[in-house]
Design a protein that fits this description.
With 116 residues, this protein is an all-beta fold. It is built from no helices and eleven strands. The strands form two sheets. Strands 2, 4, 5, 6, 9, 10 and 11 form a seven-stranded mixed beta sheet that branches. A hairpin with a 2-residue loop joins β9 and β10.
């Protein structure tokens, strides 16, 4: 069955860094665009970053440009989100998303808390 399993979340101080990883299985990973979304308390889910099937033209929310980097490894079926200079407003549950012709899949999410 399809699985997207996020890892790497946790508690970090403002200005700190975290690397999220999403391990995919059960579908043809290289044929799916991959994204990271987040949902902060009391807010709607928002797109954080997107990377197309073969990498290349990544897209980012304005609020994370220059601080977050999305990457994928089609040999390992993983997509990562490197986050630096974290701010309290980055606190949210982060979700891995796969979108392709055969469907859209979501992970369960990993909590990121930025607080001193």
């Amino acid at each position: 069955q399809v699985q997207l399993v996020e890892s790497g979340g946790g508690l970090v101080q403002p200005g700190g860094s975290l690397r999220l990883s999403c391990a995919a299985s059960g579908f043809t990973f290289r044929s799916y665009g991959m994204s990271w979304y987040r949902r902060a308390p009391g807010k709607e889910r928002e797109l954080v970053a997107n990377i197309p099937t073969a990498g290349g033209s990544t897209k980012y929310a304005d609020s994370v440009k220059g601080r977050f980097t999305i990457s994928r490894d089609n040999a390992k079926n993983t997509v990562d989100l490197e986050m630096i200079s974290l701010k309290p407003e980055d606190t949210a549950v982060y979700y891995c998303n796969a979108r392709g012709l055969l469907g859209t899949y979501w992970g369960q999410g990993t909590q990121v808390t930025v607080s001193s």
